[in-house]
Amino acid sequence: MTSMKIIRKILLGLCVATLLVGGISVGSRALPISYRQELCKKLVSKKSVARCLALPTPEWAQKQLDADFRDFEGRKVTAAAVAELYREIRAKIGQQILHYRILDNQLYKYIPNGAEYSSVDTRFERAFKTLLQYTNVPDLDFLLCPMDGIPEPYVPQDFFLSSTAEGQVPLLGQAKRKEPASQYIVLIPDQFSLTESWWQDIKEVERDNDLVSWDQKKESALWRGNLTDVGVPGDYSPHLRDCPRFKISELSVQHPKLVNAGISSAESPETITILSHSHVIRGPASKRDHIRHKYLPVLDGHMCTYPGYQWRLLSNSVAFKQESDQIQWFYGGLEPYQHYVPIRNDLSDLLSQIDWAKAHDEEAQEISARAQEFVQHNLLPCHIYAYLHRVLSKYATFQEIDFQALKKATRQDPKWECIQYRKRNHLMRTIRKLMQFGRPLAGEVFYPGFSNQTVQCKAALQGFL
């Protein structure tokens, strides 16, 4: 440890000691002290989110919200039902289910016995916390499944269903299969679209769009990816030759002037052997490489490809969207031959659709332009955060929960951790350690997220934090 770091620690201790001993009377509300990496402020601004929330909900978005919550009309979500479904799902799929609460515009996370506590936020947690700093969100008690989509092929297909009809509550997810396979799943924007990944894609694609005009593009399709559509963890399946991602790579071998496709990497020795013998392993391709081609296939992996679909829509090429039973929150706003060219799930018509696009070049360019317009008016970060807020607000209307009692129970339960301000939490823990060496002071105050720990010197510490 450098001498400067030691001096800083000593100065911090002296400042805290001064506050404790002096008993300075300051404000009663804790400051929102947070690490920069806790939030997504570089991605989206408070003003832009407020501006989007002030606009009417787009028709496609309202239809998706109504469809996702349709099964809960006339029913009420209780805290007991949420807790019980959490226990049931966790028994089936383990840690791929998360329990959160939003109380007084702060995010709480449930840490069950035996689960490892992480001091680092997930992408979803950063997004929730950013939204909570930007705008008011109703008190909520909810479940989130962070897997790629619900249900993925290698988990029990009904894992999200309650053992009793009255115990069913909504489950938030970033992608799902079309109903009835995903009944009770409520879509929210995916974790990459909510964080810096999508913003970086936007900047990169908009830059590359300016470098390659429509007339300069190759009249062929470009695709790169991995074998994530084999239906099992890893990349080996005895049926991998039947998977669309393998098929498009084979088409590239057979029709190299129309299709440039390949598998970028593989893990299992069996898969590598098959791919090598089939000559379908190809090096990775950048977004600029893609944009040099007019036709960009969009193929599902474990679930929907995101934000791969979004940036292909934003490009000045045209997306060739594979027919699928998998959807994200914005799919309802897109129409075939308006925003994309449809292709069959098995890609059996890919070559004929490429021929159609070549023969209807002007129409294909118009499809690309409409897709770009849709992204610019519906899928920029401010729009995405506004949609997340609308989901949470609609969810709140179905709750029947005594939140005063729930807040008290949450703050007294050591399994619930307030993660809204992790930097503040770290300071609180540091101060508690320092106080062990100071004289006791009168007055106690409870701080959410500290497992019912007592903190002395109420006025001083509340002002400090």
**Major beta sheet summary:** 6 strands, mixed
Q: What is the beta-strand fraction?
A: 5-15%
**Count of discrete alpha- or pi-helical segments spanning 4 or more residues:** 16
* Class inferred from helices and paired strands: alpha/beta
**What are the low-pLDDT stretches, counting only 5+ consecutive residues below 50?**
18-30, 437-465
What's the N-to-C terminus distance?
A: 26 Å
Outline: globular
CATH class of the largest domain: Alpha Beta
Strand order of the largest sheet: 6-4-3-1-2-13
The CATH H-level homologous superfamily of the largest domain: Glycogen Phosphorylase B
Mean pLDDT: 88
The CATH topology of the largest domain is given as Rossmann fold
Q: What is the count of structural domains?
A: 3
Give an overview in words.
The chain is of the alpha/beta class and 465 residues long. The chain folds into three domains: 71 residues, no CATH class; 180 residues, no CATH class; 183 residues, Rossmann fold. Helices cover 41% and strands 13% of the residues. The chain has 16 helices and 15 strands. β14 and β15 form a beta hairpin. α2 packs across α13 and α6 runs parallel beside α10. The longest helix is centred in the first third of the chain and has 20 residues. It is globular. It starts with a helix and ends with a helix. The C terminus is likely disordered.
Task: Summarize, please.
The chain is α/β, with parallel strands linked by helices. The protein has helices spanning 3-22, 46-54, 59-69, 79-93, 123-134, 196-211, 244-254, 269-278, 287-291, 308-314, 350-359, 361-378, 381-396, 403-412, 422-435, 458-464, and strands spanning 98-103, 106-110, 140-144, 171-173, 176-177, 185-187, 218-225, 259-263, 293-298, 318-322, 326-327, 341-343, 416-418, 444-446, 454-456. Helix content is 41%, strand content 13%.
